[in-house]
Amino acid sequence: MTNLSSFRLALDRDTRVDQGRLWASLMAMAEVGPGIAGGNNRQALTDEDGAARTLFARWCQEAGMEIHVDQMGNIFAMRPGTDPDTAPVCVGSHLDTQPAGGRFDGILGVLAGLEVVRTLNDRGIRTKHPIVVANWTNEEGSRFAPVMMASGVFAGVHSVEWAYDRQDRTGIRFGDELERIGWKGKMPVGSLKLKAFYELHIEQGPILEAEGTQIGIVTGGQGLTWLQVNLQGRSAHAGSTPMARRRNAGLGASRVMELVQQVAMSHQPYAVGTVGRLELRPNSTNSVPGSAELAIDIRSPDATVLAAMEASIRHGVEAIAGELELTFTISRLQHAEPVAFDEPSVSTIRNVAASLGYTHRDIVSGAGHDAYWLSRVTPTAMIMCPCIDGISHNEAEDISPEWAAAGANVLLHAVGETALVDACTGHP
Ligand code: HGY
Ligand code: MN
Ligand code: MN
């Protein structure tokens, strides 16, 4: 049993990450899978995702870490601790992006984790617990639903087999695609037991920037439900079909979109509702749409509000279909309850932010994150940094190098406190 007195609870307070190196890594990663407007299109399990993984793994190996990959392609870059029998402290997020995604959503959390290790290496600092930097597969859920898929398997929310059978909209299976890009590991998912998990993420909303606050102390996150609605009418000639004889699925879709807006607005200020995906068939200018598929995203920090929104939407879709003589199906694509993070871990983040002199405030996450599921299996907390105009899931997503470094410094010191710094190492 190691003598605990040889470990300090904290790094020297003047220890900071290398802001320029972190920013250079973010910009280099942004070159992989570029979008069309300055952001990224690096969707899960595409070749671009594979290239990002390869780059990340190389950087981690150059920093002296061992690479472990589980059956869901989750990457765990491990920095050994002085006591190999202890559970690692994990930091990380995701490298996959939305189709019109930004350069920082998820990527900041992964590369700030790498920067933490690079900084400890620079200072020759050892920790008692190993440190793991994680890249969680398919956080975005845009190509393969649901969101936070592989961290969900890690936390026991989904089975590996169920996840492997998820298909994208062209019918490609998740498991086959993971195999194709060469990132289907052998490590059983969830076998890595963690001491704690910290995720740094951009806010993806306007609060921190508007207040001029540097750090968000994330106390929890709102719940989310995705619903898929399929409306079935009859395609018909746009010219020769009288209005009274139409069974117009496109009209039905427009009313469902308005319904989602009204339901969200009726639960303000803590509810949001979006129809982000709409597909009409046959999708031809001179054919009345015979069928429509809509994907609905509703969220609230209050579980009862979320349930009430879902019930109102289900009821409203039935009424709309009746009025327009459509048949319909409505099904849940996914659901995550609102989450509260581990209070001692949240306090660590808050105390570190204060001791480093950063302005900070508690905040509830509007977006979903891998930390949601990790909080089921290990003490978990999140750190947020502002983003410009609160824009995200948009190629214009942007942050400042200073915000990135401030978040990474809080991550660095939170890791130092949790992984226990070996007092005999590091510069005086
Ligand atoms: O949908 C979300 O909240 C996350 O960006 N995947
Ligand atoms: Mn994200
Ligand atoms: Mn996202």
TrEMBL record:
Gene3D superfamilies, per database record: 3.30.70.360, Zn peptidases (3.40.630.10)
Stored InterPro entries: Amidase_Cbmase, Bact_exopeptidase_dim_dom, Peptidase_M20
Source domain of life: Bacteria
SUPFAM superfamilies attached to this UniProt entry: Bacterial exopeptidase dimerisation domain, Zn-dependent exopeptidases
Entry's transmembrane regions: none
Top EC group: hydrolase
Binding site for Zn(2+) 1: 94, 105, 201
Alphabetized UniProt keyword annotations: Hydrolase, Metal-binding, Zinc
CDD domains in alphabetical order: M20_bAS
Cofactor(s) for this UniProt protein: Zn(2+)
Stated name of the protein: N-carbamoyl-L-amino-acid hydrolase
